Amino acid sequence: AITWWLVTWEEIEVTGLFSKDCILPCSFPPGSDEVIHWSKENKKVHTYYRQKDQLEEQDPHYRGRTHLFHENIPSGNASLKLSNLSMTDEGPYTCYVGTAQYPTEVKVLLHVLAPSSYALEYQKTNTERRLKCFAFLTYPAPNISWEQGNVSIQETDREETRNGDLYSVRSDKDIVSTTDTYWCHIDFHHGVWTAEWRMMQGRNEISSCIAAEFHSWLQSQTKDSLSAVGQHGYGQCKRMLTSVLASFNGTAHSHQPRVQIDKTDFSLRLDHLTADDSGEYLCNISTPHGTKLIVSTLHIGELLLLPFQKIRNISRLLWQRLPSQCLPSVATNCSHS
């Protein structure tokens, strides 16, 4: 009598990017007369025997998107290349290999990441202020919620579109009280992205609050992933017409002759003030985990000195002048979740 022992391996997790290719690994003890079956639940993904592919019963969803490395099969490699990933490709796969000597089974769990990005936009006109919270190209459709002063509130407007497997959602909220803080929370597949908006109260609050609050916020949001934020963090400060005053992207830059930026603490100095410099200024810093926007008002007669404590997590800092009336100001994060 011949006794067969099924060789099994612990489940392997693989992460692929939407619309890209990935390889589902499967190795087995080399033998002869190889039979290879790749399946996902009850779907036949790819079949190989008699030294060639046998795809007559392949599920239509995988047609033309699977590939075995035939030259490597004799050495024990039954890995499958899956092309043009879709979100519905995500899930558990089984690789079964039978030879004249041993049967082998390998479990592979595939995660597919969407090219998602998130943004908070602040708009101001003569009659209203509005926040717009965006989730671009996500799967599944995310849940967007709002808070005002730690109280849950309803959105003002909402729009959802779909492009193939992917969803894009915009949620709007009118600002009815400039003394309150507003939060937008986007609950997506693998976590939560949070944006915060507030308006500075009082002329002398600028120097005392911005650096400390941004430092505290960055530390609390990124304490488990400082290196990631160091590579992908984004910060900016703007004035309510869109003109860039100064920026930091590894190196500090001043974009106007009257502007100086301190390379040690990122504070900004605006010299030779004129009446046109009066108005609202918007500061924001964004990381892959969220965005914080602070609006402050410059009154001529004061020296504008807005300090930013040097934070190792910020890879880009931007000072920008914005208009007195309608302005779209967007802070975005473009890394995968």
From TrEMBL:
Keywords: Cell membrane, Disulfide bond, Glycoprotein, Immunoglobulin domain, Membrane, Receptor, Signal, Transmembrane, Transmembrane helix. InterPro entries: CD80_C2-set, Ig-like_dom, Ig-like_dom_sf, Ig-like_fold, Ig_sub, Ig_V-set, T-cell_Activation_Regulation. Residues 24-107 form the Ig-like domain. It is a single-pass type I membrane protein. GO terms for biological process: cell surface receptor signaling pathway; cellular response to lipopolysaccharide; immune response; negative regulation of T cell proliferation; positive regulation of T cell proliferation; T cell costimulation. SMART domains: IG. Its main location: membrane. It is found in: Cell membrane. GO terms for cellular component: external side of plasma membrane. This is Ig-like domain-containing protein. It comes from Catharus ustulatus (Russet-backed thrush). The lineage of its organism: Eukaryota, Metazoa, Chordata, Craniata, Vertebrata.
